[in-house]
Amino acid sequence: MKLVVEVIDAHDLMPKDGLGSASPYVEVDFQNQLSRTKTIPKNLNPIWNQKLLFDFDKTQSHHCSIEVSVYHERRPVPGRSFLGRARISCSNLVTKDDQVYQSFQLESKSLLSFVKGEIGLKIYTLSQSNNLISSPKITLPKPPPPSTPITGTTQSPIVDDSIKLIELKGNTRTHTNPAETACASRIPIQEANSVIEERSETTHQIHKHQSVQQPTPTLLTRADGVHLPTMQNQTGPKLRRRAEHEATRPLHGDNNIIINNNNNTNTNINNNYNNNGNENDFEVKEASLHLGEQWPNNGGRMWMSGERMAATLDLVEQMHYLYVRVVKARDLAATSDPYVEVKLGNYKGRTRHLERRTSPEWNQVFAFSKERIQSSILQVLVKDKDMIGRDDCLGGVVFDLNEIPTRVPPDSPLAPQWYRMEDRRGEGKVRGEVMVAVWMGTQADEAFTEAWHADAASVYGEGVFNIRSKVYVSPKLWYLRVNVIEAQDLVPNDRSRLPEVLVKVQIGNQVMRTGICPSRTANPIWDEDLVFVVAEPFEEHLVLTVEDQIHQSKDDVLGGITVPLDSIEKRLDHRPVRSRWFNLEKQREVRFSSRIHLRVCLEGGYHVLDESTMYISDQRPTAKQLWKPPIGVVEVGIVKAEGLLPMKMKEGRGSTDAYCVAKYGQKWVRTRTILDSFSPKWNEQYTWEVYDPCTVITLGVFDNFNLGGGGGGGGRDARMGKVRIRLSTLEAQRVYTHAYPLLMLHPSGVKKMGEISLAVRFTPLSLANTIYIYGQPLLPKMHYLHPFTVNQVESLRYQAMNIVAARLARAEPPLRKEVVEYMLDVDSHMWSMRRSKANFFRIMAILSGLMSMKRWFEEVCNWKNPVTSILVHVLFLILIWYPELMLPTLFLYAFVIGAWNYRLRERHPAHMDARLSWAEAVQPDELDEEFDTFPTSRQGEVVRMRYDRLRSVAGRIQTVAGDVATQGERLHSVLRWRDPRATSLFLVFCLCAAVVMYVTPARVVVLAGGLYVMRHPRFRSKLPSVPSNFFRRLTARTDSML
Fold it and tell me: Which of 111, 141, 659, 864 could form a disulfide with 859 if both were Cys (CB 3.0 to 4.6 A apart)?
């Protein structure tokens, strides 16, 4: 039988951190079994909702009690402070069906400890058959008998030599194979003489967001008389990593499946997802990555033993591959259609076949992961393609893997050699030779990107190119400014009416029009600027037509011109550009030609925005001449992803073919696609030059739906979430290794799609240049000298995104349009009730500081704390007597607050916050509205309901705006004689105040005013003050509103 102590919450705890708050956690002691909850930082009313399990003997329930202690966790110095405890007798325990929420008053340990607050618990028993929760357990051995000498190890307060750590993920039910049998998970940590209790548990790796249960806490069991130290760092990080690795080691492949002894119900992983989940699932976590690993070399020659350090990629875990380069063959049979088959165990790779070649050339590389090598020999076979029967083997070469050399860049490439082919049965030499190079390397090898990988054997055709890693470069974008000045000698087709002339300008898919000239004449004047986005190389032409608008749906063309973009002048600043006259071309012959006056230029002093300024990754102007030298580099190691959800069905089961895309500046990178894996390992490292630290790098994970015959093709790559990292939040030279949650907003709510592990390092080249950047404008100076309107910025950004997506889609392999749009936040400007709520509460969070200061000042004025009020009065008198100390005091206060907050700073980069985005509490209809098309595609009743809701929200905003306008109008009317009596009173007051302040020193006036505001409540009245009453009686223009 199990005893469950469900820790719900606590209220009104005692502050312990010196800042009026505490970071509490709960520790429960039951019959020498200790278990604790997670720590809730900075909260005096924490909520845990966490279950703790203990072994329970029902026969001794009347002789035991449960001790629940609340502690404050001190940081960064390890330690804890007592916040209170509660003792609960086990005589009245109930079953799970009868459990209720109970509140217990916290008590102190002694008369000298001061505690306050309450803790809410649910305590009940659970039979073994219903036990669906398991806790990791640490068992301490009993003390040795007196005759046994006590060593220093047993007396150490840190129990890492005599304990056993078992990390179990709970018996959550997921998709299982009934044929698999349960096994006991045993995790030896250290060899000790004492007997350590081992707990058998059937387990397999599963991630929290794929489980409907909450994570279970760590449970400590101690023997009688053994002192248990503070629950911090009970084992070293090396032991913890090893224990966690062993406890969560997969039983079969990469599939995240758990085998349950108690219940064999088969449930799809995707259905186990809980939308609410645990709040820790959406947080950034420290990732234990083995970066810059050593790898076997055997003294620099063999790869089966020995060590060699590879320093090429130091932000990823090294992956070892067997490379086989098949270059060519010679002296083959003249009638053969040869191709080469590379065979290693069950893996086979083959080159293309060449018809009727005696000396064929392939120059193709094959890569086999060391983790999947199943044989000790490698066969390179040359075969003859037979269109009807079985292919004939012309011969081959066999390599012993123990004799394979190693190569790590920057070593020179291994030279291929000619090998005389042998008979397949090894009976002797045969005709022909093949040139092959075989070596052991890592993913840093130059051949890695273009190699055929054994784990992608199921992909063929065009799909082979779509799974390779590539680096893309965004096209160079320019703003094209067309200033339409005037036209002369226009000849309308209908001479019985005065023309209504406008100019239409088109570049590719971008079309803009000027307004209709107000003077209906044959010599119209517009003087309007039209701005477009164009990309190098300039493939389109500027097409301009002059039209006479007959009515809304019909225009007569009066002439047009076509201007190549290569002939347009470029400018880097705001200097004037020379205007030009162009003759208009018409379809029919005329005696004389009309002409148009234009000023056209390519703007090189602007930065073409293709992404939101909030997440901008590059701020350089278009013209390379205006670029400044880089101030640093950022290196990103895309290590792996874990716990990805199935995105499609393949052969009757869920599957995910994931790849990662990273974007910073003009450089895009795409990792290779890992096929059919929920825990893909990419281990690819990339570097970008940094020109401004206040920029953001964006990484997204996608599921590949374009694998050719291997996995279907022609679909849209599915989004799986993205991560943004602002470089200014990174410390210099520090390597950040974290696991970031991949969150996606679906019509059903927010969902965690998995986690991605990244290693990031920002290296400034010059500290002085980095600091200098902080004082410079965010964008190039042309954005401030000749700024665009808000509508122009949004329209130009949309056009730039379309151009970038179209150009990258033409690459090979293409970076698809849906990927580019997701990375560039193409729909960030769309209306969303969820975003509106999130922005509103962001504003409220900012104003909460001012509101806190106001409440504090009201408490000072009301003398809630006499000591504080007296100190404020003293400080006020000092500042009045020495006014020159005001600004130094203010800045010193800001310095002290900033220095104090240094130890409370965040240790990890920011991430996608579901709570800040208001994604956890959003209503289903609001989500449906957010995913609606534009214009809407919903039915009329739904649109009417949403319109009424929007009217309700707008009505509240309207009321607030009206109140603000009323206060402003009252202040404005005080001198306007709208109310003669009120204005007269105010003028008399102003005259008297002027006389008094003229004859009275300013210090006395300020001192009297300050003391009057902070006067004691005994001298106050609960009625509004006279100035407030006077102000509220002033007139406003509300009487004139309809």
Answer: 864
Cα–Cα distance measured from residue 405 to residue 380, given in angstroms and rounded to the nearest whole number = 17
Is-contact 811 472, C-beta < 8 A? yes
pLDDT (0 to 100) of residue 183: 34
Are residues 783 and 776 in contact, defined by beta-carbon separation less than 8 angstroms?
no
**Lowest-pLDDT range, 175-179, 402-406, 669-673?**
175-179
d(CA 1037, CA 969): 7
Q: How far apart are CA 837 and CA 833, in angstroms?
A: 6
DSSP category for residue 794: H
CA 1006 – CA 882 distance, rounded (Å): 13
C-alpha–C-alpha distance, residues 850 and 340, integer Å: 75
Among 541-555, 681-695, 925-939, 1003-1017, the range scoring the smallest mean pLDDT is 925-939
| CATH homologous superfamily of 298-457 | C2 domain (2.60.40.150)
pLDDT tens, residue by residue, 785-801: 999 999 999 999 999 99
d(CA 104, CA 465): 65
Q: What is the dihedral of CA 237, 239, 243, 245, to 10 degrees?
A: 60
Distance CA 884, CA 881 (A): 9
The CA distance from 201 to 868, in Å, is 58
Mean pLDDT of 89-115: 80
Q: Where are the alpha helices (DSSP H) in 279-320?
A: 298-301
* b (16+ CB within 10 A) / e for 559-592: bbbebebeebeebbeeeebeeeebebebeeeeee
**CB-neighbour burial class of residue 764 (10 A; exposed 0-12, middle 13-18, buried 19+):** buried
Share of the chain above pLDDT 90, in %: 28
pLDDT the model gives residue 1038: 79
Amino acid in position 431: R
Q: CB–CB of 629/620 below 8 Å?
A: no
User: What's the pTM?
Assistant: 0.67
Percent over 70 (pLDDT), the chain: 81
In the chain the first and final C-alpha atoms are separated, in Å, by: 74
Tokens representing residue 134 in the block: 């398991």
Chain segment 831-855, per-residue pLDDT in tens: 788 888 888 888 888 888 888 888 8
942: three-class secondary structure by DSSP: helix
DSSP classification of residue 628: P
Supply the Cα-derived Rg of the chain in whole angstroms: 37
Judge whether 962 and 1037 are in contact, CB under 8 Å.
no
- Bridge partners of 342, per DSSP, are 349, 380
Interior CA angle at 784 toward 780 and 785, to 5°?
A: 105
Written as one letter, the residue type at 187 is: I
**Which of 241, 315, 307 is closest to 683 using CA atoms?**
315
At 479, give phi and psi (nearest 5°).
-90, 130
| C-alpha closest to that of 395 among 365, 429, 363 | 429
Sorted by where each begins, the domain ranges of the chain are 2-130, 132-145+152-279, 298-457, 477-603, 613-777+806-823
Whether 742 and 641 have beta carbons less than 8 Å apart is answered as yes
> 357 or 67: whose pLDDT is higher?
67
Indicate the length of the chain as a whole number: 1042
Tokens 């090998």 label which residue? 419
Per-residue tokens: 912 = 């996608």
Contact call for residues 644 and 744 (beta carbons, < 8 A) = no
Where are the extended beta strands (E) located within 536-579?
541-551, 554-564, 569-571
Check whether domain 2-130 has CATH 2.60.40.150, yes or no: yes
CA 1002 – CA 997 distance, rounded (Å): 7
Q: What is the assigned CATH class of domain 477-603?
A: mainly beta
User: Of the spans 94-103, 143-152, 505-514, 587-596, which averages the highest pLDDT?
Assistant: 505-514
